[in-house]
Specification:
Layout (H helix, E strand, L loop, with lengths): L6 H27 L2 H26 L6 H20 L12 E2 L2 E2 L15 H8 L6 E2 L3 H6 L6 E2 L14 H14 L4 E6 L21 E8 L2 H4 L16 H8 L11 H30 L4 E5 L8 H7 L4 E2 L5 E2 L7 E8 L13 H8 L1 H5 L11 E3 L2 E3 L4 H10 L5 H4 L9 H11 L3 H13 L4 H21 L1
Antiparallel strand pairs: 1-2, 3-4, 5-6, 6-10, 7-10, 8-9, 11-12
Helix pairs in contact: 1-2, 6-9, 11-16
C-alpha cells in the first residue's frame, strides 16, 4: 500500500533515529570508560528504540497510522517531546551577579592572600628548605621521597635583544602554540591583577611581582586515574607512597620483603608524571619568553609559586570553580593541574567562560556527599575574601590527604569528571544553559547510571575509618 510521509512523521522519525544513534554511541563510550551500569542501561534503551522503530515502520506499511486518531496521537507525542526538549534549554538562572570572575560573584574588596595560610603550609616550608626558591626538581624519585637529584630554574636572565612585536594577537597565538608544544593541553591569558599575587611566601618573605600578564597552562590527569571506576593502586598495600615504589620508579634497585606489583608501579608512575608535566611546560615556556627579551617567571603549584592559580585560570577563560574548590574545565572537568607564567610580554587577554557551574553545583552536592571527612560544605555559597564561593575546610582535607594521598573522592564523584567525548560535551553545553530542570535530571541520571559510585563507596569506607580513629583517640 502506497503512503506518503507527512512532515510530522519525517520529523518524528529523524528525532527517533537520532536518539537511537546517541544511545548506541553512549553505550560504547560507557564501555570504554569502564562504567558497566551506564553501558548496559544505554544499550538496553538502544535495543528498545530499535524495536520501536521496527514496530512503527510495520504500522506505517499496514496503513495503521493513516486514521485521523492515529495522526493526532503522533502529532501530540511529537509536540510533547519537542516541548520537553525545549524546556531543557530554557535558562532559569539562580544568580544575576553584578560583577563576576567566570560566574563566581565578586562581593567587596579582595585582599591579597598570605600563602602561609594555605593548608599544609608548614609542609611546604620544610620542602622548600631543600632547594633554592628559584629551582625545582621534577624527578619522580624526588616527588616520592623528597630527595633532590635534578634542578631546573623557574626564573633566569633575560635576552638583552628584545624582539619586535608587530601584532599582539598573532604573538599570543604563537605563545599558546609553544605552550602546547611543551606539553600543555589548555592555555589561557589574562592580566595579572595584584590581588592574585600572594602577599608573603610560605616562609614569610614579602612577595613583589609587577608583571602585567599571566599565561595559565593546564594538563589533565588520565581519566582512568581519577574516574569513579579508577583503581586505588597502593590502597591495599600502603597508607602512603613508599620508598619501594619510588626506588623502582627512579630506576634504583632495592630489596624488599613485599613485592610491588608491576601494575601498581605503572599507575603511580603515570600519576607522578601528570603532576610534573605541567610544571615542566611552565618552566620551558618561561625560558622561551625570556629568550624573546621579556622577563618571565614560572609558578608551579603551592610549593614553588607566588600567585593564586585558580583565580587566574578562571580569568583566563579555562573554566570555573566548582563546589569542591577545583577548577572545572570543559576538556577534563575537575582533574586538571595548572601552572602560571607571569611576564611583561604584551599579550591579548582571553575572556572568562560561563559554564553554569555554580548553578549546577547548587543542585548536585555529590562532592560534599562523597568527602570522607566532610570538608566540603552543603548549602549556599557565601562571601570569602570578596568572592562568593563555598568555603572548604582546607585543614581537615589536607590532614586526611597526608595519610591518604590517593583520595580523589571529590574528583571521582563529580559529574563533570568525564572523558572528552561528544556525548559529555553535549551534556556540558546543556548545563551551561542554566535550566533547573536540566540540572536536576543530569544529577539524577548521573547517579542512576552509576557514575561516582566507586568514590561514594570509598568515601563511606574511609569516613567510617576516620570516625573510628577519632573515637579511639578520645
Amino acid at each position: 500500500m502506497k503512503t506518503n510521509l507527512r512532515w510530522y512523521e519525517i520529523s518524528g522519525g529523524i528525532l527517533l533515529i537520532a536518539v537511537t544513534v546517541c544511545m548506541l554511541l553512549f553505550s560504547a563510550i560507557s564501555l570504554a570508560e569502564g562504567e558497566m551500569r551506564a553501558a548496559m542501561f544505554s544499550f538496553g534503551v538502544f535495543l528498545l528504540l530499535c524495536v520501536a522503530i521496527i514496530i512503527i515502520i510495520n504500522l506505517k506499511r499496514r496503513g495503521a497510522l493513516e486514521s485521523v486518531k492515529a495522526q493526532r496521537i503522533v502529532k501530540a507525542a511529537l509536540g510533547i517531546i519537542t516541548f520537553f526538549i525545549a524546556i531543557l534549554f530554557i535558562p532559569t538562572d539562580y544568580y544575576t551577579p553584578k560583577k563576576s570572575c567566570g560566574t563566581t560573584e565578586l562581593a567587596g574588596q579582595q585582599a591579597r592572600y598570605d600563602s602561609r595560610k594555605q593548608p599544609g603550609a608548614k609542609l611546604f616550608v620544610k620542602a622548600n628548605k631543600t632547594v633554592n626558591s628559584d629551582e625545582l626538581t621534577l624527578t619522580v624519585y624526588d616527588i616520592c621521597v623528597g630527595k633532590i637529584s635534578h634542578k631546573i630554574r623557574r626564573d633566569g636572565p633575560v635576552n638583552p635583544q628584545r624582539i619586535e612585536i608587530l601584532d599582539r594577537k598573532v604573538l599570543t597565538e604563537k605563545i599558546k602554540d609553544e605552550a602546547r608544544s611543551f606539553g600543555a593541553q589548555v592555555v589561557g591569558v589574562t592580566e595579572l591583577k595584584p590581588q592574585y599575587v600572594f602577599s608573603h611566601d610560605v616562609e614569610g618573605n614579602p612577595i613583589a611581582i609587577h608583571h602585567k600578564y599571566a599565561i595559565v597552562i593546564g594538563v589533565g590527569m588520565n581519566y582512568r586515574l581519577a574516574s569513579p571506576s579508577a583503581p586505588l593502586p597502593w590502597e591495599d598495600y600502603y597508607s602512603a607512597l613508599p620508598e619501594d615504589i619510588a626506588a623502582e620508579l627512579s630506576g634504583l634497585m632495592v630489596r624488599s620483603s613485599t613485592k610491588v606489583p608491576r601494575k601498581v608501579v605503572d599507575e603511580v608512575r603515570e600519576a607522578m608524571q601528570f603532576f610534573s608535566e605541567g610544571g615542566s611546560a611552565a618552566v620551558q615556556l618561561a625560558k622561551y619568553v625570556r629568550s624573546m627579551g621579556y622577563p618571565a617567571r614560572a609558578h608551579l603549584h603551592n610549593r614553588a609559586g607566588e600567585v593564586q592559580i585558580i583565580p587566574l585560570a578562571i580569568e583566563a577563560g579555562l573554566g570555573e570553580m566548582g563546589k569542591n574548590g577545583m577548577l572545572i574545565t570543559k576538556e577534563f572537568g575537575p582533574r586538571g593541574s595548572f601552572c602560571v607564567v607571569t611576564t611583561d610580554l604584551p599579550l591579548v587577554p582571553d575572556r572568562f567562560v560561563d559554564m553554569g557551574v555554580k548553578d549546577f553545583c547548587m543542585m548536585c552536592n555529590k562532592c560534599a556527599r562523597s568527602c570522607p571527612v566532610q570538608a566540603i560544605p552543603y548549602g549556599d555559597p557565601r562571601a570569602v575574601n570578596g568572592v562568593v564561593k563555598w568555603p572548604l575546610d582546607g585543614e581537615k582535607c589536607f590532614e586526611f590527604l597526608a595519610s591518604n594521598p590517593k583520595c580523589m573522592a571529590c574528583i571521582g564523584s563529580c559529574p563533570y569528571n568525564k572523558q572528552d567525548y561528544f556525548i559529555h560535551r553535549m551534556a556540558i553545553y546543556m548545563i551551561s544553559r542554566k535550566s533547573i530542570i536540566t540540572n536536576y535530571l543530569m544529577v539524577r541520571l548521573d547517579d542512576a547510571l552509576g557514575y561516582g559510585k566507586a568514590s561514594m563507596v570509598y568515601a563511606k569506607k574511609m569516613g567510617n575509618a576516620a570516625a573510628a580513629d577519632g573515637d579511639t583517640a578520645k
